[in-house]
Structure formats: structure tokens, C-alpha cells
Write a structure and sequence with these properties.
- With 69 residues, this protein is mostly helical.
- It has one domain.
- It is built from 3 helices and no strands.
């Protein structure tokens, strides 16, 4: 038997699919971590965050260590 050639289109699609699935899973884990952290955050911080998850994520992405929003 001859091994498959890794230079064809199928291999390229496989690599792209792995990258896509990895990015999707990472985004999901990050969103869940932010949701759980918001649950245990001080009330003032929880109330200052937007209701929409996309807006909340954008706001949380701007946080820096040591800052009090």
C-alpha cells in the first residue's frame, strides 16, 4: 500500500477544519468563563456590564489587571 499524499485538497480542507473547530471551542470556553466570572463578580460590576453577550465580551476584553471599571 502507498500512503496518502498530504499535498492534496483533502489535506488542506482537513487542516482548515481543525483550525476552525479549535477556534470555535476556544471561543465557547472563553464565553463560559466570562459568564461564570460575572456570576461571582461584585454587584456594582455585574450591573455595569451590558446585557447582550457580544457587547459584554467587548467590554470585558478592555479590562486590564488592577483596573476597577
Amino acid at each position: 500500500m502507498v500512503p496518502k499524499d498530504h499535498a492534496d485538497i483533502v489535506e488542506s480542507i482537513r487542516v482548515l477544519r481543525i483550525a476552525y473547530c479549535s477556534a470555535r471551542d476556544t471561543r465557547t470556553r472563553m464565553a463560559l468563563q466570562i459568564r461564570y466570572l460575572i456570576v461571582i463578580a461584585p454587584a456594582a460590576l455585574r450591573e455595569s456590564l451590558p446585557a447582550r453577550p457580544a457587547d459584554r465580551l467587548a467590554r470585558c476584553a478592555k479590562f486590564r489587571p488592577g483596573e476597577c471599571p
